[in-house]
Amino acid sequence: MSKNAGGMIHERGYVYNFHFHLVWVTKYRHEVFTTPKLVTEMTDILMKIARLNEVAIEQMEVMPDHVHLLLSFKPKYAPTNVAKAFKGGSARLFFELHPEIKAHQFWGGHLWSPSYFMSTLGDMSRKTVENYIASQRKV
Predict the structure, then answer these.
(1) Angle ∠(92,21,127) on CA atoms, nearest 5
(2) Which residue numbers delimit the Transposase IS200-like domain (predicted)?
(3) d(CA 6, CA 37)
(4) How far is 44 from 93, CA to CA, in rounded Å?
(5) Which of 10, 90, 121, 125 has the maximal Cβ count within 10 Å?
(6) Three-state secondary structure along the chain?
(7) What pTM, to 2 d.p., does this model score?
(8) Residue 13: pLDDT band by 50, 70, 90 thresholds?
(9) Is the Cβ–Cβ distance between 90 and 43 less than 8 Å?
């Protein structure tokens, strides 16, 4: 894999340039990541999951009750599977480090709410792409 200055990622047989904004919240919106140590632990966990799943984290913010990630990953991976890998893996690894938090705040065994938000973004706006496609037809 190589990445050029324009953000294009070159793989064998294809080139891509897309990014995803992924956000999810803690169960019951409990504020968990309230100390630098807890934020660092979750950041490290998310970086590990990214490496294991061939995902590039371009930006990350771990807030007390939610996480924001700006991601890029190969087109062969489904966005829903990437979201599940981050949420499921991070909950398991975090609760291994902190069984007391699981017992005290998350008695049901779930660190994260079942839902998440994901959107795509790129270097070009939708209008730019629409105009480009429309301009391709020569009458």
Answers:
(1) 160
(2) 15-136
(3) 36
(4) 10
(5) 90
(6) CEECCCCCEEECCEEECCEEEEEEEEHHHCCCCCCHHHHHHHHHHHHHHHHHCCEEEEEEEECCCEEEEEEEECCCCCHHHHHHHHHHHHHHHHHHHCHHHHHHHCCCCCCECCCCEEEEECCCCHHHHHHHHHHHCCC
(7) 0.85
(8) confident
(9) no
Active-site entry in 14, 28, 77, 132: 132
Tokens matching residue 52? 């294991």
Lowest-pLDDT choice from 37-51, 79-93, 120-134: 120-134
Among 112, 14, 108, 107, smallest CA distance to 65 is for: 112
Q: What is the pLDDT of residue 11?
A: 82
Q: In the chain, what are the domains? A: 2-136 (3.30.70.1290)
The two tokens of residue 107 are 């008695």
